[in-house]
Amino acid sequence: MTSPHSNHDRGLAFDLSTLLSRRRTLGVLLGTGTAAALAACTPGPGGGSATPSGTSSGTVTPAQSTTAATSPSAQATSTVTRAFAECGVEIPGETLGPYPGDGSNGPNVLEASGVVRRDIRSSFGTSDTKAAGVPLTVTLTLLDNANGCSPMAGAAVYVWHCDQNGKYSLYDRGLENENYLRGVQEADANGQLTFSTIYPGAYMGRWPHIHFEVFESLSNTSKAGQVLAVSQIALTESACKTVYATAGYEASARSFPKTTLASDNVFGDDGGIYQLATISGSVAGGYTAALSVTI
After folding, report:
1. Which of 161, 164, 170, 283 is the S-S candidate for 210 at Cβ 3.0 to 4.6 Å?
2. Residues with Cβ within 8 Å of residue 67, at least 6 apart in sequence
3. Is the confidence at residue 53, as pLDDT, over 60?
4. Percent of the chain predicted with pLDDT > 90
């Protein structure tokens, strides 16, 4: 049976423009002698993790390891420095998917009071239901490619993703009156913003991911046609395997092995090399995911 979540048709025009854009990017990379590095980043038939955007060494921090003790300011500085060093390739545009909650397909959470928040684990408004799951902190660094990769201070990001069972608030049966795992944040002077959430589950037909939209400013998030970029964050294989082995993620553990990065209908064309987050942490202490987003 086909999962309702696998319906991510973006249309022929969008698919062609995205494919051509990525082929042009690949041509530039090959022309500058980085073909070997790109090949090393691309997952093989087994769906191994690609090298994430935002790593200078080309290696992913093992998901079961714990991040070294560093101050929050030092971690933020390190992430910004790494993002600047790797800026230059714009984030691939992706589908909103069928459950955006931005007014383009039914409900519009962006018009609701309370959507601007860092912690998106609970619903807000008429419900305070909290989504269960392994804690995850997501940090995005927004960079303006047209202006020398300068930080996009004041830009805004709307993120949303499924719960630990692979279900989406506002849409799935029984969750129509919930709006958890959705929220908006404004970028600081370094172009950074952070969300506190839970590790998303896996469902049939898709590699585990987080959706996001980028807006020029916070005031533009509820205005039609003001989106600068639409994309998705890919999560690493090692972290997914560890998280999905824990209680509460049983449905995800069954679905996860059936889709690889290479077979995913969004990340499969390039292995998600520009969208694969750098992830570290543990089930007990929670995970952190970081991605630099060049627009």
Report:
1. 161
2. 61, 280, 281, 288
3. no
4. 67
Closest CA to 205 of 280, 95, 105, 104: 95
Distances (CA, A) of 125 to 25, 167, 229: 43, 20, 28
Tell me the H-state helices in 139-184. Answer: none
Burial class (CB in 10 A: 0-12, 13-18, 19+), 208: buried
Secondary structure tally for the chain: helices H, strands E = 5, 9
Task: Using alpha carbons, select from 295, 31, 55, 14 the residue that is nearest to residue 156.
Answer: 295
Phi and psi at residue 23, in whole multiples of 5°?
-65, -35
276 or 87, higher pLDDT: 276
Domain map (residue ranges) of the chain:
6-294
Cβ atoms within 10 Å of 136's Cβ, excluding its own: 24
b/e sequence 58-93, b meaning 16+ C-beta within 10 Å = eebbebeeeeeeeeeeeebeebbebbbebbebbbbe
Give the Cα separation of 93 and 269 in Å (integer).
Answer: 12
Q: Which two structure tokens, joined as six digits, stand for 111?
A: 């018009």
C-beta separation of 101 from 109 below 8 A: yes
**Among 49-63, 104-118, 246-260, whose mean pLDDT is lowest?**
49-63
How far is residue 105's CA from residue 8's CA, in Å, rounded to a whole number?
13
Phi-psi region of 155 (alpha: psi -120 to 50; beta: other; left: phi over 0): beta
Take residue 44 and report the two structure tokens written for it.
Answer: 């093989």
- Residue 31's pLDDT is 36
Which homologous superfamily is 6-294 in? Aromatic compound dioxygenase (2.60.130.10)
- 26 to 23, 96, 129, 145: CA distances (angstroms): 5, 24, 44, 17
Taking the model in full, what pTM does it have? 0.74
Region at 27 (left for phi over 0; alpha for psi -120 to 50; beta for the rest): alpha
